[in-house]
Amino acid sequence: MLKFKKLSALTLAFILSLSTVTGCGRTSPDETASVREVTTEETETLADSSLVIAEQGIFSSGGITVTSEGTFDPADQWEETGAGQTAHVDHANVLYQIPENDTELPMVFLHGYGQSRMGWMTTPDGREGWSDMFLRKGHSVWLIDEPRRGEAGATSVSGDISTKTLDQRWYTQFRIGKWVDGRSEAYEGSQFPNDDESLDRFFRQMTPDTGMTSDMGADYDGEMVAEAVAAAIDEVYERTGKNSILVTHSQGGRAGWLAAKYTDHIASIIAIEPGSSAEAGTEEYNVMLEKGISAAIYFGDYIDNGDPEIQATAAWQGMRQTSYDFAEAYTADGGTAEVIDLPKEGITGNDHFIFQDLNNDVVADHVENWIKENVQ
User: Is 108 exposed, middle or buried (0-12, 13-18, 19+ CB in 10 A)?
Assistant: First the structure.
């Protein structure tokens, strides 16, 4: 494990002193580099802003081992059938960090379609991502690359990694704006960092799935992903002794609801714009209710006020409605569930990637407050 210690006051003072040297490069003969004394207050401020990680690492969770018939011949290891050999596949890959001030419940993050854990760690314009923000709030973070995605690409089924040019499809579906005459036009009041460089970085976050044949995610195996996520949550419990808050996004929302069937260690689910929610009476719904799992479901802007000519507007209205239906039924049955429509909270301009928008810190604070009020 890697260990990180706080910088000493002496080291911090040295860093601050260097920053006050006159000039950015070499000084001319008649210039004298001046160093002022660093105040105690400045040293303490810099120390307080440091994010101190006590422990971090990576592990795999879940998955299966496939064995081919036959006998492996070490003298002919290059034979093409794989006879007698194994493949370790369909596992999740989990990167975790535990802060020095580990005072809150662990947060396990599951990405959505075409994404990886990278989306939780940074933003298109390079600002701090949610993983760092919640570390600062005292949560350990456990960032999943789901089976057949990113660093967990080993798969038991053969997919078709599309080479189609589909950036604008997803720009539109994610409610960032309209693409007109080869240019992006973000919606009015948008919180998306829509400059050319940020947009380029955003598109480069898209990550292919090694097990899908559909370029629309139609063959997503929610049960398989849910089992791997549950295995990760069980591992978190073994390492920390704490139940987890599961944070899902988009397509990952489906696996989030299902994961409750495979683990007893989910305290709450925070679903960021899930494509659907658990339907009343289903197995996953009943299990969540029985286990007392609370749920908060967040939606951004441009749904009620989206462009009616764009298919995504009606689609998101329908997807959000499934969450309202779930929350109403779940609450009536004695559970804790709430749909948080950010514009109604006075937080506007958010697209599908709420956690990467310019106001991601504002929404993170809202999430943290909800957790403190509703999660034991």
Answer: buried
Output the six-digit token pair for 187. 């919606």
Least confidently predicted of 15-19, 44-48, 94-98, 123-127: 15-19
Sheet arrangement for strand 141-145? 53-61, 92-99, 141-145, 107-110, 244-249, 266-272, 294-299, 337-341
| CB neighbour class for 268 (10 Å; exposed up to 12, middle 13-18, buried from 19) | buried
Rounded Cα–Cα distance for residues 237 and 233 (Å): 6
CB burial of residue 276 (10 Å; 0-12, 13-18, 19+): middle
The C-alpha atoms of residue 246 and residue 243 are separated, in whole angstroms, by 10
Report the run of H or E that residue 171 belongs to, with start and end.
helix 167-173
Q: What phi and psi values does residue 243 have, to the nearest 5 degrees? A: -70, 160
Ramachandran category for residue 338: left, alpha or beta (phi over 0 → left; psi -120 to 50 → alpha) = beta
- The Cα–Cα gap between 218 and 299 comes to 22
